Amino acid sequence: MMEQTEQRKILLQARDVCKWYPIKGLSFGPKRHVQAVDHVSFDLYQGEILGLVGESGCGKTTLARTVLRLIEPTSGSVLFDGKDLMAQSKGQMRALRKDMQIVFQDPYSSLHPRMTVRQIIEEPMKIQGLYPDAAQRKARVSDLLKMVGLNDSHMDRYPHEFSGGQRQRIVIARALATEPKLIICDEPVSALDVSVRAQILNLLRDLQEKLRLTYLFISHDLSVVEHLCDRVAIMYLGHMVELGSNEDIFGHALHPYTKALLSAAPQVGQFGRRDRILLEGDIPSPADPPSGCRFRTRCPYAAEGCSQVPQWEEYSEGHFVLCHRFRELDQQG
Ligand SMILES: Nc1ncnc2c1ncn2[C@@H]1O[C@H](COP(=O)(O)OP(=O)(O)OP(=O)(O)O)[C@@H](O)[C@H]1O
Ligand SMILES: [Mg+2]
Fold it and tell me: Is 294 helix (H, G, I), strand (E, B) or coil?
């Protein structure tokens, strides 16, 4: 985790990022969109682990891919290491990719079956023109394998010869090959056997500390997020609804949705011994989200004013919330 005294340099700054996917197949009438990510703003500090939490389909992967410009945003801006990503040419973007990598959920589909481990790990170096000398490149692969708990005997083997946990180690070695500043971990252990999850999480944490990496860490698992992350962001239906330090979120959650999520995970945070907050109804479609506060159709505290668009407000330093009623509710305790 990040040391308190460390200068908080912003590595990535996202402002009002929207990603709306057009819905194809309608030839007349107004154009419709899946509003997967809508007006999301956050900072990612160098050297921190920011957790990104929310139910399936709320827009976590879309947000992560959009802020790296792997998919084009509908609108909004992203500064990465001081550079305006949306203003970069294709070539400039390719050069910047050296500093940003993603570890995906499924290590089975993210490794090419006909490439050896060595070829897999060398590929990003070749693309970036790093280690042009073959012997040096091989030595670098050897170092990377050691860093992730594998060794030289694995170099000339193929992905199918490895277990899920080992494959994820290979994926991590490949992500580290270009010495990135930022790694997005998109549910990096949820496809793995429960028995190896802790090992991979420990590896990711050790590497983050040792190499002073910055992670955006996407997860469904609140107990993992509580243990691993310095700060936490909560998403609901394309909106970021709360963002704060680990203590803010797990000790003093403000948004009714965050509280409901925490109450469904009795082993974590402030609601450990409290009653479950049950949410009524289904998640609305992101193609037709409720007006105003998107959570209002399921919120136990929704009132008339919630049909207006809420503001992203800072409650205490660094603790943001998107809710009309959080102050009253907080006072009620
Ligand atoms: N390429 C696409 N075209 C159209 N809609 C998409 C596309 N990708 C995602 N979506 C939709 O955008 C919304 C957000 O999807 P996204 O994959 O970002 O969610 P997520 O939070 O990562 O979910 P999960 O936890 O299941 O991975 C969903 O409604 C999804 O169906
Ligand atoms: Mg996802």
Answer: coil
Distance (angstroms) between ligand 1 centre and the Cα of 97 equals 23
Q: What is the pLDDT of residues 100-149, one digit of tens each?
A: 999 998 888 889 999 999 999 999 999 999 999 999 999 999 999 999 99
pLDDT per residue over 178-228, tens digit each? 999 999 999 999 999 999 999 999 999 999 999 999 999 999 899 999 999
- List the CATH number of the domain containing 138: 3.40.50.300
Model confidence, pTM: 0.94
Neighbours of ion ligand 2 (CB under 5 A): 61
Which domain does 219 fall in, by range? 10-332
Name every protein residue with a CB atom under 6 angstroms from any ligand 1 atom. Answer: 21, 34, 36, 54, 56-62, 286
Q: Ligand 1: distance of its center to the CA of 59 in Å?
A: 6
- Residue at 284 is within a domain: yes
Q: In what order do the strands lie in the sheet with 312-316?
A: 100-103, 182-186, 214-218, 49-53, 231-236, 239-245, 319-322, 312-316
